[in-house]
Amino acid sequence: MSDRYIDFVNSSLGQRLVGALGLPSPGRLERWQAGRLRPVEGPLLIGGGALAAQVARFGGKLTDAVFSYGPEPLHATPWIPGQGPKLKAVVFDASELLHTGQLKQLREFFQPLLRNLEHCTHMVILGRAPETLSDPFAASVQRALEGFSRSLAKELRNGSTLQLLYIGEGAEDQLEGALRFFLSPKSAFISGQVLRLKACANQVQDWTRPLAGRKALVTGAARGIGAAIAETLARDGAELILLDVPAAKSDLDALAARLGGHSIALDICAADAAEQLTGQLADGIDILVHNAGITRDKTLANMTPEFWDSVLAVNLNAPQVLTKALLDSGTLRDNGRVILLASISGIAGNRGQTNYAASKAGLIGLAQAWAASLGERGISINAVAPGFIETQMTAHIPFALREAGRRMSSLGQGGQPQDVAEAVAWLGQPGSGALSGQALRVCGQSILGA
């Protein structure tokens, strides 16, 4: 549904009143649109150490205008504060900061940029995972990057975002794929996130269709976020198998027909659901998206056994049982990708959602617990944790709660189903095997949770 406050503050009258009254002024977010040719449409600025030099080597694939800033010489046009163009994307390699005195480089690099950013600029800091460093001082300095990046992300305006990526040994080859996502409008509603990339042998062959040749199963696909996921996976070249409950069969069949996929009407909580599903997937799948989920909200004092049991059955038990069946049968092929739709409620908790939050936290735990063993087959498993997303469900939330949900983030607005879908599509890519056992929040850097 439409966010009338966003419409108002971005009108000429609204801009004058907001400025005079000191009200929040969230900007309209840029999202990926069909026909776009480059991840970044505007100047990209790169600075820092050896990883920055590597980014500079493929920077021309991301945008037509690549600049460098800082003491390290790079193969790019120098950017001069106050004279250079406004920036659309920024990458800073902080992986070589190893003692406290070097942290001042963060201020020296970013401070001159902050008044020279375009609308919806996307920035990424690169580091090394603290737990991989033997020197405790160096580890503490790399851990300091998290506090800096999360805080700076909250200071940005006009729809700009900032992420921290810890790059493991051998993961440098996956930098391009990660930056194609985080420097582009595909990550419009993601900010303040910290992710770890490890080595991964798989690579995307065609960036215009990064999922070409891969078969994806999406549960809960008939409408809402599930339908958006299906459309985005199809856009990126995946062959689709869409699943939903029998009651949604007409919508499911129509979507599958439009996207050139196949549909399966199935109750995922049925006793024989795993057997039925594997029987209909004889050719196997490469991407498994557990999107199906329900809410039955009550405070615990008023929670009925039926409300509790149904939410845990659909949201947690079904993904556990079905994923294990698909793994054990070999239906989910080696080098596959499993994406679990969690929620920030599973991270921060939410009043009246003890059942829902427990189920979504369980999905994050499932990703963490299974990551190592699935990695032996080249399979990654991650959770996507949406925040406030504009859907039919959130449209029925009382006005005051809906407005609070929208504004309680650094970006000051709700996300769109497309934002969740873009994250799922990225995690489904071959190269995104560089991440596993992690939770990616799509929440505009909500103030709820870590």
Automatic annotation (TrEMBL):
Stretches assigned to the Ketoreductase domain: 214-387
Top-level division of the source organism's lineage: Bacteria
Entry keyword set: Oxidoreductase
NCBIfam families registered for this protein in UniProt: PRK08261.1
Coiled coil: none
Annotated GO MF terms: 3-oxoacyl-[acyl-carrier-protein] reductase (NADPH) activity
Family, similarity comment: Belongs to the short-chain dehydrogenases/reductases (SDR) family.
Protein name: 3-oxoacyl-ACP reductase
The protein's Enzyme Commission number: 1.1.1.100
Enzymatic class: oxidoreductase
